[in-house]
Amino acid sequence: MSQYIRAxxxxxxxxxxxxxxxxxxxxxxxxxxxxxxxxxxFDHHTRKQSGEVIAWVIMPDHLxxxxxxxxxxxxxxxxxxxxGTNLAFLGKQGTLWQPRFxxxxxxxxxxxxxxxxxxxxxxxxxGLVELPEDYEASSYRIWLERGEYSMGWQGTDIKEPPWKGGx
Length: 167
Ligand code: NI
Description:
- With 167 residues, the protein is an alpha+beta fold.
- The protein has 5 helices and 4 strands; from the N terminus they run H-E-H-E-E-H-E-H-H.
- 38% of the residues lie in helices and 16% in strands.
- Nickel (II) ion is lined by residues 59, 62, 64, 122.
C-alpha cells in the first residue's frame, strides 16, 4: 500500500507549483534580460528530465513556476537549476537563492486554475504593471491566446494565495 501511494506521488506526470525566493530578497531579477535568462535556465533543467514548464512568473526577488516534473523528482530539478544559475551569475561564489523552497502538488484542473490566476496576477498585485499582459516575464499572454482568459482580466480579485499559510 505505501509503495502504491509513493509511486502515485512521484509520477512523471505530477504537476507542481513551485516558489523560489532570492537570498535576503535581493532584487536580482530586476531587468527583463535577467528574467529571460532565469526562465530559460529553468526550462532547460526541466526539459533535461523530460518535464515541461506549464506556467511562470519571474518577479524581481522570487519566482513561481508550474511544472510537469518529468522523469526525475522536482527537487532534483531545483537543485540543478540553483547550481546552474549560481554558477552563471556568481561564478560559484555564494548563492542567489534562499536555501528552502515551497512546493504544492496540483491535484486537478480546478486547482491548476487557481495557481494560474495567482501566478498571472502577481505582477499586478505587486504594483509593477496595471495589466497582466504588460509584464513580459510571465506566461499570461500564452494562456490568453489559448482562450483561458478574457481580454481585460486584471486579476485584482486574487488577494490570497491558493493555499493556506503560504508564502
Ligand atoms: Ni509572488
